[in-house]
Amino acid sequence: MTFEKQILVTGGLGFIGSNYLNKFVPLYPDRLFINIDAETYAADHDNLTIENAPNYKFSKADIRDLTSLRTAFEQYRPSVVLNFAAETHVDKSITGPALFIETNILGTHNLLTLSSEFKSSRFHQVSTDEVYGSLGPDDSAFTTDSPLLPNSPYSASKASADLLVRSYIKTFGLPATISRCSNNYGPNQDQTKLIPKFISLLLAGAKVPLYAQGENVRDWIFVEDHIDAIDLILQKGEIGKTYNIGGDCELKNIEIVKKLLALTGRDESFIEYVRDRPGHDFRYAIDNAEIGKELDWKPKYNFEAGLAKTFEFYRPKIEGQKHQ
Ligand SMILES: NC(=O)c1ccc[n+]([C@@H]2O[C@H](COP(=O)([O-])OP(=O)(O)OC[C@H]3O[C@@H](n4cnc5c(N)ncnc54)[C@H](O)[C@@H]3O)[C@@H](O)[C@H]2O)c1
Hints:
There is one protein chain. With 324 residues, this protein is an alpha/beta fold. It folds into two domains: 5-184 and 222-245, Rossmann fold (3-Layer(aba) Sandwich), CATH 3.40.50; 189-218 and 249-286 and 301-315, UDP-galactose 4-epimerase, domain 1 (Alpha-Beta Complex), CATH 3.90.25. It has ten helices and twelve strands. It has helices at 15-27, 66-76, 90-95, 97-117, 153-172, 194-203, 223-236, 253-264, 289-295, 303-322; strands spanning 5-10, 31-37, 56-60, 80-83, 122-128, 176-181, 183-185, 208-211, 217-222, 242-245, 250-252, 271-274. The strands form three sheets. Strands 3-2-1-4-5-6-10 form a seven-stranded parallel β-sheet, with helices on both faces. The protein has a three-stranded mixed β-sheet with strand order 7-9-11. Helix 1 (15-27) crosses helix 7, helix 6 (194-203) packs parallel to helix 8 and helix 6 packs across helix 10. The chain is globular, with a radius of gyration of 19 Å. It starts with a strand and ends with a helix. The model has no long low-confidence stretch (mean pLDDT 96). The protein binds nicotinamide-adenine-dinucleotide (NAD). Nicotinamide-adenine-dinucleotide (NAD) binds next to helix 1, helix 4, strand 5 and strand 7.
């Protein structure tokens, strides 16, 4: 079978990449999706519902390894390279930053080199609002003109990767785009991340640890809104451009916890206030005006609807684990 396009997706066994594949593999049967993933702790084949689709292939490979990546590029000659693969856990980047430098910077550089060499018609880098650093309570939301001021090894490694993408656009004419998204939540997120971890603890009758009195503010987006925005950028985005993607949903962590307490039928005695993480960014907020105006995109899910879907995804899994 011949395909119209070959889309090489990295990190497709993780949270956002798997949601992308589950939605777009069936939607675009004329495109071949090749998922490259190193199967780290964050990967799970069970995240995928499309593993038997005729337009899907999996190849276990590490983006830090140029030789095995080259083999994949030689075999599939991807027209589009969509880079989700990364080390993503901020706490892990504090205890072991080196891996973040290797995967997020050197790994992205390997993909850029090969995309350039094999003349891919599009490279897209999935980045994060954390590259902009932290906002004060009254600061305006981040725009793509905001300076890059990362505060953790994770966000510094993502900002470095973004700058490498920029350099490949400017120096080598690579047709690339970047998107910087706010905090995602939804199905398939690793159970070490805030929302699934807290749902799991509360359902098990345990307390949830909350940094800094829960005052930190994040801009939350349901994962499906993020992947829809990426698809739109791939279709209609301007080459060379960076797009911000946010959920228009700023919430303090304590507000999230209160919503989770209500969903799980627990009270505030289930909150354990713990010492803050070093370099903990106080607030992120994303200005969506540009992507809204240019690509006519806006988030479809409000937080209540997204959280209800998320809770219904995790509840049977967590209750199943309890009964094993
Ligand atoms: N989760 C969020 O809230 C959020 C927000 C904005 C941007 N992002 C970005 O989106 C992307 C995906 O995030 P996620 O939350 O799905 O991450 P995740 O940690 O759930 O998944 C990452 C995936 O990448 C794979 N991977 C890691 N190192 C690899 C390597 N060296 N070679 C090949 N594969 C490797 C892992 O095995 C895993 O399947 C990341 O680039 C992240 O920076 C995430």
